[in-house]
């Protein structure tokens, strides 16, 4: 039984993109990404994540959400991809040429789509892998005893947010539920003491109740500790409830952005992404027809 959490605060029009830009933690400016030196996937994507903000990347499968996250975390090379134009600035520093390891040391951690836990390790062993950054919790020069104490403290912090993981700490990750594996993946990221978490499709394949629990924990981490989140999500309904700002991607381009409340009330977004219109819920066939006539791509 988890503790009750406050409802996420409604997004305010005051939290505009311009406001975010004045105190930006991450600024992505006009990036293009090419795979295998031929396939152009991102076509001038720009976005901003404010300090202690939650920003949602929305769009259908294949729109470019995961590629955008991998461009920020510099995980594109493993997929034969590269940023060929534009810039990515994190905390005032250009990070395009930094390795993923160096980015983790600076506080940028990605939680991959599909959870990616080590199935043959226990939940606790999975969590401990997140502490091996060499600088986690500022203990790199503190000696073995201090590092062990810092790691133990970080582990207990994760268990406070994810009490279910403490119960399953000795279980092999491969034999736990999808929701527990997602919690484990986020908890592993927390072990590296991040400033920003790049969260890829956290609701994928999970029951609605588990999705609510995970997004509630994201909200807690943001509100209590100031962790920023850039989350890629197909479930626009829940993403816009918890995010403060959102960007909609289509075919590798940002076609619309705004504060979460404005996007959630926008008729185009409601009709296509939330399945609603002035006349009520639309059928799948009607939604497909609407896709072909979206006004923002006209």
The helix tally amounts to 12
**Which percent range fits the helix content?**
25-40%
Number of strands: 12
Radius of gyration: 19 Å
Structural class: alpha/beta
Distance between the termini: 49 Å
Give the topology, please.
Elements: H1 17-22, E1 24-35, E2 39-50, E3 54-58, H2 65-73, E4 81-90, E5 93-94, H3 100-105, E6 108-111, H4 123-129, H5 143-161, H6 163-167, H7 178-190, E7 196-200, H8 208-225, E8 228-233, H9 236-242, E9 245-250, E10 253-259, H10 260-265, H11 267-272, E11 276-277, E12 280-281, H12 284-292
Parallel strand pairs: 3-8, 3-9, 6-7, 7-8
Antiparallel strand pairs: 1-2, 1-4, 4-5, 9-10, 11-12
Helix pairs in contact: 4-7
Structure description:
Helices cover 37% and strands 24% of the residues. It has helices at residues 17-22, 65-73, 100-105, 123-129, 143-161, 163-167, 178-190, 208-225, 236-242, 260-265, 267-272, 284-292; strands at 24-35, 39-50, 54-58, 81-90, 93-94, 108-111, 196-200, 228-233, 245-250, 253-259, 276-277, 280-281. The strands form three sheets. It has a six-stranded mixed beta sheet with strand order 6-7-8-3-9-10, sandwiched between helices. A hairpin with a 2-residue loop joins strand 4 (81-90) and strand 5. Helix 4 (123-129) runs parallel beside helix 7. The radius of gyration is 19 Å and the shape is globular. Mean pLDDT is 85; it is low at 9-21 and 135-140.
